[in-house]
Design a protein that fits this description.
By secondary structure, this protein is α/β, with parallel strands linked by helices. The chain is built from seven helices and eight strands, in the order βαβαβαβαβββααβα.
């Protein structure tokens, strides 16, 4: 099964204030480079990074990684535009894609590979999501059969509404850590993460 990775790195970080959260670092890689690197280290191929806000700086933060970049000119209109931009950049023969948020500091390649294995084991599945303490998390893996429905999305929404509509065909993969449900949106989120 051929499953790509789409790393969504186009957002404006409005809740973070003046700083682009994707460029934050606690001494290691910037958030965006960490997410992209984990995608590269996983079994997912190819890896497409969707740029938008401060595109040049975000691209520079990922320098040297074997990925392709695509710019979403409509990133200010919300998440759906970046998701659609990423899907359009995929090869025609792809079976699905993992949609990865670039602001998840706990993401690792092992989580991506477990999600891929769960998705691959159920050929009829339309999606796979990690579940932590009863809560759906990210990344989500989406079958190519759902791509036309994703084209109907608008504004600042991701694929969750579509996945909930097809819930019976969504694999829920138990995840013991909070890596799948923790992202960085505010200065308080970052302060909490950086203290660990």
């Amino acid at each position: 099964m051929s499953v790509a990775a789409i790393v969504l790195a186009a957002g404006r970080s409005t809740r973070m204030g003046a700083q682009n959260k994707l460029l934050l670092t606690d001494g290691g890689d910037p958030l965006v480079r960490h997410a992209v690197k984990m995608a590269v280290l996983s079994q997912l191929k190819p890896v497409v990074v969707v740029l938008g806000h401060e595109a040049d700086a975000v691209r520079a933060a990922c320098a040297g990684l074997p990925v392709s970049f695509v710019t979403n000119p409509d990133f200010a209109q919300g998440l759906s535009t970046s998701l659609k931009t990423g899907i359009k950049a995929l090869p025609d023969n792809i079976d699905g894609a993992a949609v990865i948020l670039a602001d998840m500091p706990g993401l690792d390649a092992a989580l991506l590979d477990r999600l891929y294995a769960a998705f691959e084991a159920e050929p009829a599945a339309l999606a796979a999501v990690p579940v932590h303490e009863g809560q759906w998390g990210n990344p989500c893996m989406i079958a190519a059969a759902l791509f036309p429905e994703i084209e109907t999305l608008s504004g600042d929404q991701g694929a969750r509404k579509i996945l909930e509509k097809h819930r019976a065909m969504v694999i829920e993969m138990p995840e013991s850590s909070d890596a799948a449900t923790r992202d960085i949106d505010t200065p308080a989120d970052w302060a909490s993460f950086a203290k660990k």
